[in-house]
Amino acid sequence: MRAKTVVTSISRITERAPGKEACLVVIYGTDLGKKYNLDAATLVLGRSSKCDVQIDQESVSRAHTKIINTGKSIRIRDLGSTNGTYVNDEIIEEHVLGDGDLIKIGRTIFKFLSGGNIERAYHEEIYRLTTIDGLTQIYNKRYFLETLEREIARSNRYRRDMSLVMFDLDHFKKINDSHGHLAGDSVLKILASTIKAKIRREDLFARYGGEEFAIVLPEIDGYNAHQFAEKTRRIVETTDFRFENTKIDVTISMGVATLDPDTADSAALIKRSDERLYEAKGAGRNCVRG
Fold first, then answer.
1. What does pLDDT average to over the chain?
2. Cα–Cα nearest to 109, from 136, 77, 78, 73
3. Residue 3 CA to chain centroid, in angstroms?
4. How far apart are alpha carbons 50 and 40 in whole angstroms?
5. Alpha-carbon distance 83 to 9, whole Å?
6. Coil, helix or strand at residue 72
7. Cα–Cα distance for residue pair 277/163, rounded to 1 Å
8. Is the sign of the CA dihedral 272, 237, 147, 208 positive or negative?
9. Predicted TM-score of the model (pTM)
10. Which residues are catalytic?
C-alpha cells in the first residue's frame, strides 16, 4: 500500500507579523522611558482620559491617532487631529511603521521598536536616553558635563588647548508665542541637525537646556574657537527654517571661553562662556563674544 503524501503549508516570511513583538517607548516628554506594548489589535492615543495612551497636552486632540496591529504589519493612522501626526518629521495620514521610526504627537516623541528581542532593544533604548536628548538627538546635559570633566582633565594633563562655546536662540519665546511650541520644537531640531553636520568627530555638541546649547572643542585655542563660532553663527543665520511652510527667522548669540589657569574646572569654564554669551545678547544679539 502506497504511503499517503502529507503536504504542510508554510507561510511566507513576509506574511508573518513583523518580528512578533513591538512597542512604543517615550523618548521625549512626560513619562520618559515608559513602554507601551502593541499586542492589542488597536491602541488609541490622545488627550482624552478614555484613550489607551493619554497625552495631556493642549496641542494633542482628544482622539489623536490610532495604532493598528493587523498581525502582518503595524500601522499608524491619524484620526483627523488638529496638529497632525508625524513619523520621522513627516506629517502622515496613515503609515506602516518600521523598527526605529520616531512618532511625534503634540510635543511627545515615541520610538517604535520591533524585532525578535524586544526587551533587549527596550533596555538599549533606555540606556541611550541617559546620554541623548530625545528631541534634538544630540547629547544631553548630563553627558555634556561628564565629558567636559574628562576633556578638561586630559587637556590639563597633556597641556593642550581646549575651548567651550555656549549659545542660545535669540528671542526664542517670541518664536513659541508667534508660531506655537510645535514650531519651536521644529526649530530646535533643525538647528541641532544643521550644526551637528558641520562639527568635527572629536567635538561634543549637546543641548544644555531649553534653547541653550554647548560645543566642546578639544585642542582648539581661543582664536580658532572664535572663528568656529562666527562661522556657525553665519550658518544658522542663513539656514532656511520652516514649519508647515512658514519661514521662521532664527539667529543665535554665542559665548566662547578657553581653558586657562583661571578656568581650571568645568564650573569656571561654563561660567565664563555663559557670561560671554550674555555679553553677546547685551551687544544686540546675533553675534559672538569671547
1. 92
2. 136
3. 63
4. 16
5. 46
6. coil
7. 14
8. positive
9. 0.88
10. 211
Rounded average pLDDT over 54-69: 97
What does the block give as the cell for 9? 503549508
Where would I find the beta strands (DSSP E) of the chain? 21-28, 35-37, 42-46, 53-54, 65-69, 74-78, 85-87, 90-92, 94-96, 102-105, 108-115, 162-169, 204-209, 212-218, 241-243, 246-248, 252-258, 288-289
Identify the pLDDT of residue 20. 62
Grid cell listed for 146: 561628564
Interior/surface letters 174-185, b for 16+ CB within 10 angstroms, e for the rest: ebbeebbebbbb
- Summarize pLDDT for 98-147 with one digit per residue, the tens: 999 999 999 999 999 998 889 999 999 999 999 999 999 999 999 999 99
Q: Are strands 53-54 and 42-46 parallel, antiparallel or unpaired?
A: parallel
Burial class (CB in 10 A: 0-12, 13-18, 19+), 245: exposed
* Helix/strand/coil for 213: strand
